[in-house]
Design a protein that fits this description.
Blueprint (H helix, E strand, L loop, with lengths): L1 E4 L5 H13 L3 E6 L4 E6 L2 H6 L8 E5 L20 E3 L2 E3 L3 E7 L6 H14 L3 E3 L17 H14 L3 E4 L6 H7 L2 E4 L7 H10 L3 E4 L6 H13 L5 E5 L17 H8 L4 E3 L1 H5 L5 H10 L4 E7 L13 E2 L3 H14 L3 E2 L3
Parallel strand pairs: 7-8, 7-14, 7-16, 8-9, 9-10, 10-11, 11-12, 12-13, 13-14, 14-15
Antiparallel strand pairs: 1-3, 1-4, 2-3, 5-6
This protein binds phosphoenolpyruvate (PEP) and manganese (II) ion (MN).
The site of phosphoenolpyruvate has 10 residues, from loops.
């Protein structure tokens, strides 16, 4: 249920409602909008209805949230998009964000070079995996703790906030020391323990859509994070498995406008992992931006031919500034612009 407070309802009135909701064993999630405060009550619908909260001081009205994903639903935010601030860079609403960097942290030199390329072009966030989910157990698995240390160095030098993947809840503490955004990979979209832990951490999360997950399943996974009180979830479409074999994954562009009807959470698109091939990346990126994506997460590498992983899909340093310029033009078609600090 969603309890919409009156304009100007007092803190005491909001707290009184929360106490009532919690007495039924339900949990209360507060969202403070510009005009109205909304309390999402998640629990037994009948018990909450029996409270007859409509009659409480400061309460405007009470409406059921019909979707199975409650806190992620557009309804919960009364149609208003969530805007997430990552160290002054914003994503969501009218703010467009580009996240770029290598697939994995390979060495000090490549990581720092990549970071400079990303910063100099004017992108907002730096990506790089220290822990890598690889299809083959014999492939490079990432530098782990040493990779995190190199990300920290890249952040200190360039000032760029870091997006890095967490694969195992046991690594949460060291990852929290450097990650401004924790990436949960496609293969972990339904790792509910990990979702809960990341939710409890409060750190912004980039949640990738599973390879065969529906949008509803993606939102139910986001709900695990939101339920722990972490409102900073960014969804990521990265291509799904279909019957098509001419390319690695099918980038589901339709997911962008459809997610916008379902949820208030920002949506980014990863053209690199969908394509698996550099030549396809610009077209997919511009299409995604023009379709209303709130951002792009893209792989770039100072020397793709020498990359340890995903080199064939990484953009070259020389092409990145022009790519970013066109990407931002495409985003402008959807009424979005980047925030530079
Ligand atoms: C990645 O972004 O490095 C990655 C492994 O992506 P995905 O989880 O989408 O495969
Ligand atoms: Mn990769």
């Amino acid at each position: 249920m969603m309890i919409v407070m009156k304009e100007g309802a007092s803190t005491n009135q909001v707290e009184a409602v929360i106490r009532q909701v919690e007495q039924t064993g339900a949990s209360a999630h507060v969202s403070r909008g510009e005009v109205h405060t909304v309390i999402g009550a998640i629990g037994d619908r009948e018990h909450i209805a029996n409270l007859e909260l409509e009659g409480f001081p400061g309460v405007d009205h009470v409406v059921p949230i019909s979707r199975p994903y409650k806190l992620a639903s557009l309804q919960f935010k009364r149609g208003q998009p969530t805007v997430i601030d990552i160290d002054g860079r914003r994503i969501g609403g009218t703010s467009f964000m580009t996240i770029a960097g290598p697939c994995t942290v390979e060495s000090r030199e490549t990581m720092l070079d990549a970071a400079r390329i990303v910063r100099d072009a004017g992108a907002q966030l730096l990506r790089g995996g220290a822990y890598k989910p690889r299809t083959s157990p014999y492939s490079f698995q990432g530098l782990g703790g040493e990779g995190l240390r190199l990300l920290q160095e890249a952040k200190e030098e360039t000032g760029l906030p870091i997006v890095t993947e967490l694969m195992d809840a046991r690594d949460l503490e060291p990852v929290l020391e450097v990650a401004d955004v924790i990436q949960l990979g496609a293969r972990n979209m339904q790792n509910y323990t990990l979702l809960t832990e990341v939710g409890r951490s409060g750190r912004p999360v980039l949640l990738k859509r599973g390879l065969s997950a529906t949008l509803e399943e993606l939102l139910m996974s986001a709900e695990y994070v939101l339920k722990e009180g972490n409102a900073n979830v960014i969804l990521c479409e990265r291509g799904i498995h279909t019957f098509e074999t001419s390319y690695r994954f099918t980038l589901d562009l339709q997911a962008i406008p459809v997610l916008k009807e379902m949820t208030h959470l920002p949506v980014v698109v990863d053209p690199s992992h969908a394509a698996g091939k550099r030549a396809l990346v610009p077209a997919l990126s511009y299409a995604a931006a023009a379709a209303g994506a709130d951002g792009i997460i893209v792989e770039i590498h100072p020397e793709p031919e020498a990359a340890i992983c995903d080199g064939p899909q990484a953009l070259y340093a020389e092409e990145f500034p022009e790519y970013l310029r066109k990407l931002e033009q495409a985003a402008a078609l959807a009424g979005k612009e980047p925030v530079r600090v």
